[in-house]
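User: My advisor, Dr. K., asked me to get a structural model of this assembly before our group meeting. I'm new to this, so sorry if the format is off. These are the inputs:
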Amino acid sequence: MKKPVSEQPYFAMRTPISRRALLKGAGITLALPFLEGMQPVLAQAKPATMPRRMLAICNNLGLLADQFFPQGVGRAYKPSPYLEGLQAHRNDFTVFSGVSHPNVDGGHPADVCFLTAAPHPGSSSFRNTISLDQVIAEQIGIQTRFPSLTLAVNTRARSLSWTGTGVAIPPEDKAAEVFKQLFLQGNAAEVKAQIRKLETGRSILDTLAEQATELQRNVSTHDKERLDQYFTSVRNLEHRLAVSRGWEDKPKPVVKAPVPVDPASPAAYMTRIKVMYDLAKLAFETDSTRAITLMLDGVSAPVLEIEGAKITDGYHNLSHHGKSESKRAELKTIDGWHIKLLAELLTKLKATPEGEETLLDRTMVLYGSNFGDANAHTCFNLPTILAGGGFKHGQHLAFNTEQNYPLPNLFVSMLQRMGLETDRFASSTGTMRGLEVA
Amino acid sequence: MKARLLILLAALPFAFAALRPAPHQAATKLEPYEQFVQKYCSNCHEPEKLDRIKVHDRVQAGEMPPKEAKLRPSEPEKTAFLRGLASWLTTEEKAKYAREGRATQRRLNGYEYENALRDLLAAPWLQIRDQFPEDGEAYRFNKVGDALDVSHVHLARYLTAAEYAINEVIQAHEKRTPTTTKRYYARDQQTLTRIFTQTIFNSSPDRQTYPVIGTTPQPDVRNRLAPLTVGDSDPKTRELEAVGWVSSNYVTGFTYRWDQFKAPVAGRYRIKFSAYTLWAAPGGIHRRFTDTSDKVGTPGKPRMQTPDYDKISPGRTVEPITVYTRNGTKNRCVGGFDITPEPNVYDIGEVWLVAGETLVPDASRFYRSRPNNFVNPLMTKDGCPSVAFRWMEVEGPIYDDKSDAGYELLFGGKADVESHLRRFMAKAYRGPVTEADVQRFVKLYQERKQAGLGDREALIAAYTAVLASPRFVFLNEKPGKLDDNALATRLALFLWNSTPDEALRARAARGELSRPNVLRAETERLLNDPKSHRFTEAFLDYWLDLRKIEDSTPSTTLYNDYYLDDSLVEAAVLESHLTFEEFIRQNLPVRNVVDTNFTFVNERLANHYGIPNVKGIAMRRVSLPADSPRGGFLTQASVLKVTANGTTTSPVLRGKWVMERILGFEIPPPPPVAAVEPDIRGAVTIRQQLDKHRANTSCASCHTKIDPAGFALESFDVMGGWRDRYRGVDESKPAEKGLGKNGQPFAFHYGLPVDCAGSLPDGRTFADIRELKRLLAADEATLARSFAKQLTIYATGAPIRFSDRAVLEKILEQAKPNHYGMRSLIHGVIQSPLFREK
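Assistant: The format is fine. Below is the predicted structure of the whole assembly, which you can bring to the meeting.
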């Protein structure tokens, strides 16, 4: 039984969803809201801007490198067998080679570092750091009812989302549960409790602002700047709490989509992935959140059920193929489905208009892995794809496979695309070389 | 006569300027400066872009105008110019100090905030620091106000951390359980016994454990044909039952965590282990599993690299064991001991744990098998070493009269809310509490109660607010001489990285602290207190960059022998801490920073350094032979690791590091130049590559200063191991054989020899690091000046600026007679106006 990770009103983050009983007669029959009809959220006098989002997916058993990485660099690259499956979207994604997170080694434990780049996850004194989605949530999370969503397939323990205080946000592995929290009305007592927490936060901040004002009268000019900064932060946080409080009063969006059905067996891995992809799209369409992480955990998966194929060995075993051709063949089938589902997701996002653009144009989809080669358990030369988000895509950005380019640089570019003023993330050295905004 | 009169007349404006430092006179006073610069500098430099302090220094050093310049000032002209400029700079700075102080108002950094909360709430186990964003640095320390920003993120984290801390203290009080002593048997520990059986994730015996009594293996138990333990039915046998293994901890597959025990409440626990070493014969069997549902697997053939747990014999080795915590947010090392073939009980003493934490004993010499085809590097044709654990015993929580002090402070005694708040704020705020402030938080309490919060919740809200309030978070220093409270705070932040204790506050309250002898006595008291270890850690974390010790990973290609060697890195950091503390304790002269005849090692580190006859995991002081390159910070493994990147070393980086941190010279950043890419195939050394670069005169001007120390340090690899030749990767050459701690083979070859000779800018030459150390150690004043500078930035949050130099020289003068003892320098800084004024 998971504990809610944060009773932390100051982050203006909602507690991740505790398990609730099925609402009786939860008929969801009403019309889909118009994306364009959504009102601007912030009370501040800012012009209404269309939102940008991020979906980050980690496939924690990776993809066969010799089938994934393309030949040739730049726009003229020749697609690899796997990338053939994405060619319908060639101009909507960038494929990277020669990238990895500096000092993130250790194999399996590195999956929780995919979005944090914290070094040495296998070490006895490892401590994870803030993940990409939580940086976004901390800055703009108040703009949506849910600052972020942490999802997973086949695990409730391996999470991609880590808060700035070093705590993992346990992932949701049941799409039906998430659907209910996004679209069905909450428990009155819980809402009241949350409101009270937010109000306490604001009261505290009022008191702090008062003391700061008093102190500012007696300091020198240069020192005043420091206290000013504190004072501004107080006001800033107060505003965030106010916005959060506002969400409690707003009704949830109404959707026409049915409650998703989560397949019962972990062997139905691919179906579970599809269900989560559809949920993510719905969450973005309703602007319920703008940062979603999804951990695809293949490590403890059983023999997978793949439509139209016969798999004879456990997924993890297959990933340690030891160059066996039969194992590699089965792995290719599985990997092929990963690509197929990703292609379908991109198709659906592209088919959803958003103003003059499409949902895909305004949603960054990061697909990657902590493994460059699961067979050798190495964590460099990671297979990485970035789709959508309004970048100039259609190319293979190839970096040095002997001395990898830092993947955190891609995260800096992504943060900037989300509108955050930042120039670093973990061990980054700048933005992603060669990746430009459209 | 006439010439002298002219000089006197020329000097007059400067003299007057010195007498009248009013700001509006600034323009007039600068005229002589501007004239000089116009005449001698403006041909090459744009006068407005010149930094006046740099102008002063370069002219004084004779570097500017350059020797080739057509127009150069006469000596008297130069002297007058320098005197006038110095006077102007000093006056300007002093005026600024009078208005603003040397240091900018600053908040507590993450380390300090954590310690302040730990001390205030009497909860040394609180883990808060990592909840904050990383602190900004200026002048390479995280103690400078200009770099310590506050954003809404910081504020949110302060509130969360404060609330968390208070709740943890409440939990520690409410969940108090009586002190017990309980023995947790290995055979009852599921994490250990479930891997008797092979599964898909430990299909190799290397990743299994096995049951044993004494040296007798128990195949029936291992194959689950007999119960895991005799339990209570046979207490004598139970005491002899043990679980053995041959691997070190690896996080997901097989962590030997003893989680039958989880600390019920935050507090102090005394931990003991009963353990011994064994020896396992070769010939074990791997099993093959299809997937996680396959519970039986298919056995393979016996292999000579694999241990056979049915053939156990008495131990042949002494094994170091490191104990870590687990399940918390900050897993850390809490102790270590050496186990022998004779079963013994090992007491690691008292350990602070948070609620829910458990412990993990790690056989740190053993390997951590990484896929694929891993082989135990310790396996011989006769077998491999193993460890066996019988039990872990925990006594605790251990209480004393301070255990409940935090809770007492928050809620103890029957008093009204205002009294509670007053008492709390008096302790938390490092000075007198105003009525307005008390009422402010009382009002918060009342408002929250009105809103429906309970008594306690509302009070917690008020406490949380106090701990995030500017009076707690910011220092309270006014320009000019610091009042006693501010001085006490500075002293405690310097020597304890925390806030003042009761005794120090009492002296401040009585107005005694500003008396030099009292200040000296308190300095001594704080230095002698165990809390001064926080100073060692925090100071070295930034002065020597030891906080970056894990920032690089040894390359598995070139340095697989260092990969995953946690015990080496741990010992290296301990060496630096212990050395520093010895320097301070014994008041050793500052030249020891560079060259000394002792160090601290344990067996692992001694092996690394080639120091013979050191056995065991405990760190101890050893004397170094006269020709040893070790001794002093420059040649410590920790320093050599943080100045390398896991794959290659750079003489420029190491040289710059020495110049700036040890000798105190600032090197300007290079102009944009293409970086030199080291050739790891080894066809050319980094020095050879650099030589081409340095042949260019404009590059040489800085590089002749930076590189020499770096060349001498080329004798040390990425982990500080001595090398006569570089390692390279060239498949055409034969590889050095061996297996790393990941069970994978080495793959490097030895290449070109290291050329570690060089010459200093003044022309003195050295053949190697030993000679360089002697040359550097001879210049005691430079070393002392640099060390005192580092201390000053750390202790006051402001660098040594122009007008501070004279004060610094006075400190040095006083410390000179005992060759600039490092403890004396600490005293010197504290007694000086640099520390005693804002």
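One thing worth pointing out at the meeting: The first helix of chain B runs from residue 2 to 19.

User: Perfect, thanks a lot.
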